[in-house]
Structures are given as C-alpha cells and as structure tokens.
C-alpha cells in the first residue's frame, strides 16, 4: 500500500506542467533521434548531458527517460520502412517488419511496433514500481566486496560475453578503465597518467568522453566511410495506422511473450536489448513452424510484435536496476548513471531515502512517457518517417556544432575541445574496426566504483584479498558469471561447428 501511495505522490510531481513538458520534449527528441539513421538514444542522452545541467534533477531525468524509451520507439520506423536498423536492438524487427512493408502493410507494421513497445514498456514499468524498492533494500547488504563483484560481473558480461569478438570487447573495456584512472589519486594524492598537464589533474570528464565516443565519433565515421554506402529505399506507409481485431488477436500473445522474455535482461548486464529481441524472434519463429500455415518469411505480424515488446520491456527493467542498484546494463544507462553522479546523486537505497520525490516522480513519468509515445507514434508514424529525408551533411554538421557547444559550455576550456576531438578520433577508429563502444562507457562509469571497492575491501581485511570471495552475495555473483561465460562459450562453439559443417557441405553439393 505504501508503494501505491508513493507512486500517487510521484504522479502528482510528474504531472506538473513543467515536468509534463519535459516528458513530451524527451519523447519527441528520442523518437526523432531513433528514426534518423546512425543515431540512437545513447547519442541523444550524451548530447543532452551538458545541456541539462541548467535543469532541476527531476526534470532532467524525466526528459532522459523519455529519450531512452523514445529511441526504441523511433528506431523501428527505419527498420520497417528502409530495412536499415539504426541500432542493434532493431535488427530482429527488420526480418518480418520490412516484409510486411513490402507487402503493402507498412502502416500496420508501424502500428504493431508502436503497440508492442507500449505493451513491453508499460508492463515493465509496473514491475519496476514494485521491484525497485525491494532491490534497493536488498542492496543495503552490499559492502565493498559485493560492489566489486557486481562491477566485475558487469565488466566481463558486457565486454566478452555479449560481443561477437571478446578480444575487441575486452580491449574496449580496458580503454574505458584507462581513461577512468587518469587524474590525481584520491588516496595517495599522486598524479596518474596526467603527462604533467594540469588540465588532466581532475581527470577526464565523462561528459566529454561520452559525447566524443557516441556522437562525434559517429559523425567522423559517417563523413569518412558510411556516406559511401547507399541506403535502402523508403517505403511510404499507406492505409489504416491501426490493427484490425484479427491482427490484434494475432499479435497479442507475441507481445506478452516478448515482454516476459525481455524483462529479466533488464537487471542483468547482458549488453542491453539486443539479446532478448533475438530470443523473442526465435521463439515466435519456432512456434510458427508448428502451425498449419507458417507465416514467417511472408511478413508475420508475430515476428515483429515480439521483438518490439522485448526491447522496451528490457529498457523499462534496466531503469529499475539503475535506480535500485546503480547498475547500468547498456551504454545509455551508463550515461544516465553518470548524469546522476554529476548531480551529486548515487542510485541505490540512499537515493530512495534522500531523494524519494525524484525517484517516484521518475517512476511515474515512465507510465506517462509510454502513453505519450503511443500517441506520437501510432497516428503520426508517416510524419516521423519524413525525418529520413533530411540531408546527412546538414544533419551531422548540426550534431558536430551541438557537441562542441555543449562541451565548451560545461567547462569553458579550449583544452576540453581538443580532448573532444582526440577522443572522437578514437571513437571513429573503434567504429571503423567494429569495436563495441558500450564496454568503454561502462568501464569508465564503473571503473572508479570497482577501484574504490577493491581498496576498501583490502584495507578492511588488512590486505587479505580473500575477502573478495567471502560472503554469499559475491559467491553467487561469481558463480552466475561463470555460468554465463560457460553458456556463451558453448553457444559460440556450436555456432563455429555449424559454420564449419556448412563450409564443408558446399563443395560436396556442387
């Protein structure tokens, strides 16, 4: 009953005209960024991070949540109409969604995606409301050893398990950890990796790194490489932007199954919503194969409904894990954790105690954002699709200007602009050679937590590092990590053997 009362108070705070305005602004920006090729919610949050320091924390995080959810809503538009997923989380939606568009059902495909994202996000928000306080209370049992185990779990899971190339994932992670340790050591007072430059004594700003890696690096990549790749042809939706009763009944079970698949991945550092969307698509494909008249490959509505619901349910649960545990499960969540710290806030049990108004207004804004996004995407999908017609030179020139102005406004130092360019070039090289960016961001965000927890644990045990594997919580986390690594290795070995058999079968069939 206390939870419902606190949620009601949160709605009272979120429904003020100022906060309601920021919800709408966040949803508009998130959808717009999600629709446009190459962009995503992580880039939008990174670009907005310097700008929002002038806002109250509640308004800023309400807008961030709208951007976070809106990016997934908008990303499906390009996947369906152009067969070009802007983010990895939308790849599974292209398989049947684009076939629906080619079959003249683009409007129905967009409606399926919008309702699926709404269903997944809304149900996940309900679960988060009741789960987050319990998780926050559970996290009071965490000490230095537990937080170190949690950070190590996030490092390994996001860098080596969910990437196609574990070596590249670990390299990206170590780049982030390397940037995180630059500056004056808080305990000894000794400068570390500063090159005797006073500009680096305070360390490298996370805002600068996120904007450089996610935004400026993408701009340089598009200017140098991606602009030579021709895009797909835009299919213009026609007909009714809603579903018939038969279509709704066909999609409903897939929405619910996708939501159920996506929610557990929101509290596990498994790389965001990419894995659950593929799992949801794979389940629907197996179920469809048992039907008398299989539809997959012809534009099956269930093949689009399930991934869309899975993606947004993962995002909703990720916000709960971020608020209750301070655990980012994706690059966007990591940037939002950095934003909390910029405001002097630390997600976890203390956040629920000291800033309960902010927490519950933010949780209430999730529900409002879902409704606003459904209104924006269901009848106006074609208007959003017109954003795809913006010429890339003007679009990315504007992004570059926002990057520079945002960083200079937060620090007022020319050095930070040079640092922005240098890190942006690193981001371009990583993008060009297919290095994942999320491990770098998560390494930089959680690196200081891991270092501090390791030191505190060792000091409390007089230098005995065995304390790191004592207690039930660290043991369970390490055991889960070993299980996840084992499952991942098994899956990759099976995939490698299958590919080898296919290569051997090709000459035999000729």
From TrEMBL:
Keywords: Membrane, Transmembrane, Transmembrane helix
Domain of life: Bacteria
Transmembrane in keyword set: yes
Spans traversing the lipid bilayer: 20-39, 46-69, 109-135, 147-163, 169-188, 200-223, 317-340, 360-382, 394-410, 465-489
Domain DUF112: 20-442
Leader peptide range in chain numbering: none
Protein known as: Tripartite tricarboxylate transporter TctA
Species in which this protein is naturally found: Leucobacter massiliensis
């Amino acid at each position: 009953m206390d939870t419902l009362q606190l949620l009601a108070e949160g709605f009272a705070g979120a429904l003020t005209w100022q906060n309601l305005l920021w919800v709408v602004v966040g949803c508009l920006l998130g959808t717009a960024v999600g629709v446009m090729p190459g962009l995503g919610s992580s880039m939008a949050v990174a670009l907005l991070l310097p700008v929002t320091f002038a806002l109250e924390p509640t308004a800023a995080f309400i807008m961030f949540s709208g951007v976070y959810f809106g990016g997934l809503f908008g990303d499906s538009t390009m996947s369906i109409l152009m067969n070009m997923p802007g983010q990895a989380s939308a790849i599974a939606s292209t398989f049947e969604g684009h076939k629906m568009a080619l079959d003249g059902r683009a409007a129905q495909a967009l409606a399926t995606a919008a309702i699926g994202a709404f269903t997944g996000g809304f149900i996940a928000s309900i679960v988060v409301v009741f789960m987050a306080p319990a998780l926050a209370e559970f996290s009071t049992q965490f000490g230095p050893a537990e937080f170190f185990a949690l950070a190590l779990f996030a490092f390994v899971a996001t860098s080596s398990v969910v990437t196609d190339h574990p070596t590249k994932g670990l390299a990206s992670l170590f780049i982030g950890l390397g940037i995180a340790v630059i500056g004056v050591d808080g305990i000894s007072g000794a400068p570390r990796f500063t090159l005797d430059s006073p500009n680096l004594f305070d360390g490298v700003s996370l805002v600068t790194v996120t904007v450089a890696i996610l935004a400026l690096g993408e701009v340089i990549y598009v200017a140098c490489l991606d602009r030579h790749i021709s895009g797909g042809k835009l299919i213009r939706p026609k007909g009714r932007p809603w579903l018939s009763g038969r279509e709704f009944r066909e999609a409903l079970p897939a929405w619910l199954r996708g939501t159920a698949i996506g929610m557990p991945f929101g509290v596990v550092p498994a790389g965001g919503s990419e894995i659950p969307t593929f799992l949801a698509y794979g389940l629907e494909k197996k179920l469809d194969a048992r039907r008398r008249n299989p539809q997959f490959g012809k534009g099956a509505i269930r093949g689009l409904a399930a991934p869309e619901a899975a993606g947004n349910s993962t995002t909703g649960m990720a916000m709960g894990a971020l608020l209750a545990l301070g655990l980012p499960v994706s690059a966007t969540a990591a940037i939002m954790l950095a934003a909390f710290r910029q405001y002097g806030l630390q997600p976890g049990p203390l956040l629920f105690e000291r800033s309960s108004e902010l927490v519950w207004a933010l949780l209430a804004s999730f529900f409002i954002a879902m409704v606003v996004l459904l209104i924006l995407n269901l009848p106006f999908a074609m208007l959003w699709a017109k954003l795809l017609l913006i010429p890339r030179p003007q679009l990315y020139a504007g992004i570059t200007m926002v990057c520079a102005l945002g960083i200079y406004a937060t620090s007022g130092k020319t050095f930070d602009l040079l640092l922005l360019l240098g890190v942006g070039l690193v981001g371009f090289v990583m993008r060009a050679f297919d290095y994942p960016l999320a491990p770098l961001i998560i390494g930089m965000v959680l690196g200081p937590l891991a270092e501090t927890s390791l030191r505190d644990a060792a000091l409390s045990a007089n230098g005995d590092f065995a304390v790191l594997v004592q207690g039930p919580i660290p043991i369970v986390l390490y055991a889960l990590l070993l299980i996840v690594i084992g499952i991942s290795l098994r899956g990759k070995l099976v995939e490698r053997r299958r590919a080898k058999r296919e290569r051997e079968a090709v000459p035999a069939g000729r």
